[in-house]
Amino acid sequence: MNQELSWREGERIAADHLREKGWNILELNFRNRSGEIDILAAKGKTLACVEVKTWQEELVNDLERAVNWKKIRTYASLCRYYLYQNPEYSGFRVRFDLIWVDPEEGRVDHIQDAFMESA
Hints:
The chain is an alpha+beta fold and 119 residues long. It has helices at residues 7-20, 63-66, 69-85; strands spanning 24-32, 35-43, 46-54, 93-101, 108-115.
């Protein structure tokens, strides 16, 4: 697989992965001035806010640093904003997932509830 896989291509692969698992993709690259959520998806009564990382395997240990407290706070804020704009999802369970796409191997790892909003 192409090692130079772009982050956009990684997000497309992640969205396809979610669709294959029965998720409805609500938004790709949902943003406001605070930041961006890569993918918003719904399945049943669950709303997933998904961060996508397109990295080679040797960088996977840096995932912990990639989703730091600032990113978590931004995702939580953006998710609240999305729910405010889309009240039909207000009763949904919200979770924050991480999908890692390995451009070398073509592997997709989906970590559910990868992080949560801190109090």
